[in-house]
Structure formats: C-alpha cells, structure tokens
Predict the structure.
Amino acid sequence: MSENTFHGVPRSNIPWYPTINYEKCLSCGKCVKYCKHDVYGFEEKQGKKVPFVKNADNCIVYCNGCDAICASGAISHPSKMETGRIISKLRKEAE
Ligand code: SF4
Ligand code: SF4
C-alpha cells in the first residue's frame, strides 16, 4: 500500500489537524457534518455525545475550514507558517 504524502513528505509526519477545546465545545455536531474527510467522529463521554478527532491524518494540509464554522470558537489549527517550516525541514532531511 502506498503511503499518503504531501509534497513528498509522509502525511503522518506533518502535525496539521484540528484541536478541540472542550471548555468551549457545545457538542452541536456542526464540525462532524461539515468535514467531508471523515476527520471527526462522535464519542460518548460521561453520558454526553462529544466530537473527537478520529482521523487526524485525513485533515487536508493547510485547510482550516472548520475553525470558522464552529460558532463557539472551539476548533483551532496550528500556524500555517510554522507548519510550512516543518514541511521544508522534513523535505530537506529527505534529500
Ligand atoms: S462545531 Fe464546535 S461546538 Fe460544535 S461540536 Fe464541533 S467543536 Fe463543538
Ligand atoms: S480543516 Fe478541513 S479537512 Fe481538516 S478537519 Fe476541518 S474541514 Fe476537515
């Protein structure tokens, strides 16, 4: 099976995926419905359904569309600039 890569770098080495702040999350489920890449799932926690990041590597590198659809501002992604630096470094190391 071929490995999923981004500009020649194994996707699993790139730290780009959403983080959910559960202090802010209202469990509305918008993010789960919105993402077409199966990044999110729902799980039961203390009798409540909450979203979780099920497939982090499915998140499209540099997409941060779901940050904006979360009305409570509970979703964040890393800095694009910092991620770009990490990817450049990994590409140089692979040369
Ligand atoms: S859209 Fe925001 S508030 Fe709604 S479930 Fe997702 S993280 Fe929680
Ligand atoms: S940033 Fe894009 S690909 Fe990643 S979880 Fe959100 S909607 Fe899905």
Observations:
- The longest strand covers residues 40-45.
- The radius of gyration is 15 Å.
- The helical segments are 30-34, 65-69, 80-94.
- The chain is about 25% helix and 20% strand.
